[in-house]
Design a protein that fits this description.
By secondary structure, this protein is mainly α. 78% of the residues lie in helices and 0% in strands.
Length: 188
């Protein structure tokens, strides 16, 4: 009976592979300006549509991705692993980083060929506000889920003020936040 349950669980995980590929290939194309730009849609799909994670779990994974070395969106690997094990982690990495990598390669080559084109600068100026808007939407979406009380909002405001008014190393603030969380929240 236990072996049959294990086989059923593995089969259920494998059934999620096509959905993982579809979701993360699509999200890959929304990362204009960075991974945070895709966060609102990432939340919608992984929490509301597919129910792979709770909103809190997604915020925790995203936060861990922010402090881990390397690209912050490597956190998608953890989503794939939760849904479909090692195979899920593998396909999510390929699905999320593959399309964007190919598009960037193609666009970079085209952009070099169009160096003297008179519309090039206009396109660049038009895309910058789009990227900022996507990042702002991602920031607001993340804040709605993460800032659940006055304490969190006060910490976020203090960190923002420090980063905007000083040249303090953000890693130091991350470390301070972890230590404060450990002492304030204890084992909760």
């Amino acid at each position: 009976a236990q072996a049959a349950h294990g086989i059923a669980a593995a089969s259920s995980q494998m059934n999620q592979i096509p959905a993982l590929i579809g979701v993360f290939s699509y999200l890959s194309l929304l990362t204009v300006g960075g991974g945070l730009a895709a966060f609102p849609e990432l939340e919608h799909l992984t929490v509301d549509v597919y129910h792979w994670l709770t909103a809190t779990q997604l915020i925790h994974l995203y936060s861990l991705g922010q402090v881990a070395p390397g690209p912050n969106m490597m956190m998608v690997t953890a989503v794939g692993e939760r849904v479909a094990g090692v195979a899920g982690a593998f396909v999510v990495v390929i699905a999320f980083f593959g399309p964007t990598s190919l598009l960037t390669l193609w666009t970079g080559r085209l952009w070099r060929r169009l160096e003297g084109w008179r519309w090039r600068e206009s396109i660049q100026r038009g895309l910058a506000p789009v990227a900022i808007g996507l990042l702002l939407a991602g920031s607001i979406s993340l804040a709605r889920g993460a800032l659940t009380g006055w304490t969190g909002a006060a910490v976020a405001a203090a960190v923002f003020a420090l980063l905007m008014s000083t040249r303090i190393n953000p890693a130091f603030l991350v470390l301070c936040g972890a230590v404060a969380g450990l002492f304030v929240l204890g084992g909760r």
